[in-house]
Design brief:
The chain is α+β, with helices and mostly antiparallel strands. It contains 10 helices and 10 strands. Helix 3 (66-79) packs antiparallel against helix 4 (81-101), helix 4 runs antiparallel to helix 6 and helix 6 packs antiparallel against helix 7 (280-308). The structure holds flavin-adenine dinucleotide.
Amino acid sequence: MDFTPTAEQRQIREMVEQFADEEIQPRAAEIDETDEFPRDLVDRMAELGLMGMPIPEEYGGAGLDYHAYAMALEEISRASGGLGTVVAAHVSLACNMIYEYGDEAQKEEYLVPLASGREVGAFALSEPGAGSDVPAMETTAERNGDEYVVDGGKLWISNGSVADTVVLFAKTDPEAGAKGISSFVVRPEEDRGFVVEGTEDKLGDKGCPTAELRFEEMRVPVSRRLGAEGDGMGQALKTLNGGRITIAARGVGIAQAALDEALAYAGEREQFDQSIGDFQAIQHKLADMDTKVQAARMLMHRAADRKMRGKEYIKAAAQAKLHASEVSREVANEGIQIHGGYGYVKDFPVERFYRDAKLNEIYEGTSEILRNTIADQLLDS
Ligand SMILES: Cc1cc2nc3c(=O)[nH]c(=O)nc-3n(C[C@H](O)[C@H](O)[C@H](O)COP(=O)(O)OP(=O)(O)OC[C@H]3O[C@@H](n4cnc5c(N)ncnc54)[C@H](O)[C@@H]3O)c2cc1C
């Protein structure tokens, strides 16, 4: 396996790195403080082709491979974990659902505006009583002529309050369990009965609104169903597999940010008349942090490689996301430790990295669910 970036991948990484350093980084503390959706930065990312990276150009995207996409997401997340989620939910989940399961007319109408970044997308699967246990969802879509009537609600929906298109999962056959779930393109501005109940006040991941949604007799045309009735659960799981590669990228990006800050601080801070970076205890922490970041990055590229080569990648994506998530929390934790008391206050960004990193272990499959997935794959083979 050789994951040496191609010239094009290097060029994209450098472009996003520069954008992250010059335009996101200076705003990151303010985004964290205000928790406002940074619409202007999303518009800039659209200009740079970052809102539809792996989607083919004919559908408004940039046609990039998954390595380049993951590297770009790593750079965005290095500067802002919240913006990393905005892009991951929009591209990996909403755009990919329509790209993979939409018909030509649906792609033309709904994917092109999303992948070009003119519109923002969300992926609405989770509910108050159905997080890890997806088939426990209670939202229903009952067929009535050439429409479905949707009732229910969704919780924890990233971009949910700002989205122009929401890919929604609902039960079309409530008796059929996981086989009774279907997916739909929902347009909050057009579809009467779509209600944003509010957004969450979170530990981190600021700037990406996490919304609670409610649907009251919301009418969705049959022409907006993605694929066949009953295919929704399989579609969701496949989409989340791909999404896990980019959540791994978010973890690697945040961990890299914590390492960079810790390295800089270790060189500046003096105690006992010497740089703290001269203490072997600190050096070993830095060595472990870098080793973990490099290993997480390799697992991310390994999963991307398998996906791109059309190989089965469920286990590889789960491992990449599981490891990168734990590494990002551990490395951010050591970043705080190296900063001492200064790491525990908002004068330095390491406490933000810690808060942002924690989310990785929860969404798109908790670490416990990912361990179940990895074990299932191991025992099945
Ligand atoms: C900030 C944020 C953004 C999110 N964005 C989105 C989004 O855009 N779209 C969306 O649809 N969802 C989103 N989610 C929801 C997220 O995917 C769920 O929170 C997650 O799947 C866990 O579900 P839960 O919160 O209901 O926890 P639960 O499923 O209730 O889990 C609670 C605990 O029990 C453990 N557990 C549950 N089942 C098992 C099992 N079988 N074996 C072992 N342990 C188990 C879990 O690992 C966890 O530790 C988001 C969540 C957050 C916090």
